[in-house]
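Predict the 3D structure for this chain.
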Amino acid sequence: MLYFIFYRFSVNAKNGLVYMWISFEMVINIILTILYGYVYLSIFTAFFIGNIRRPVGFYIMYGLHIGFTVISTGVGFFVELHLFLSQLPFVVLTILAVVLLPLTIYSKNKRENLEGQLETANERIAELIVFEERQRIARDLHDTLGQKLSMIGLKSDLASRLIARDPEQALIEIKDIRQTASIALKEVRELVSDMRTTKFEDELMRVSQILKAAEMELVFEGDKDSLHVPPLVENVLSMCLKEAVTNIVKHSGATKCEIAFHQNFKEVHLVVRDNGQGISRKQALKSGNGLKGMHERLEFINGSFKIENENGTTLTISIPVTITHQKVKDNLKNL
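Done. Predicted structure below.
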């Protein structure tokens, strides 16, 4: 009765008191084993020890219980040899239960706890994936539609100026506006259905068209055919180029845009420079979603960008080649 009273207290005990009640149970187990050969109550103690959640507390009480059970059983053989020999199989099974039962219960509880944490983590990951997908769609819509709508606006202004002095050229510009609108509609449909990989070479051609429509001089330096990066990195680089040129057309008031690209065994560098009024990095991040989205995209592949003001604005984008593949894999795995 005293053993079960202690057991009841240990069930309801909190913090460190549970170890005190388990210790009292061990003392009763030792006394009953040595005097009467009654080793079986140690199984109940072993069961309760298996439900201890703290690893340090579990292993301490587990080791002590095994030690006291084996020692008290050994002493019992010297005190009451005939009593222990008569129930030797049951004593051996009890000691095996004392050894195996706590480990089994502790491992089961730990596994269930990890499964619960995994389920919670999967739910959180699912929420983050939805949020990231919404952010991605918002960035892509901004980048895709922003450029096309800017081109439509520029060509519309150009067509309105050409109507009086060159109607044929104005008609050509209007046809280009219609074609650009059709392309924008197609890209939006593709964007909604799936993430579309944009080739850097194709994007370079598009930005040259929008700069021409804005009556800006374009100077390109570098070998675009030397780009060797994963499709995701190329897509991010293309989107960054698109956003940079769109900002130049919208905000810089420049007459010239220089684009320089080169790649070595360490990094990919893209430099976009204009001779406009200039803007700081802090102002750029506050001014709209464009450069903020660029920062988020580059951060995903461990890239970075910096803005310098000297006779205009210089945007320098850097992506480390040596860790790009592993970084992309790690980010996709976290997602």
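The chain has a mean pLDDT of 78.
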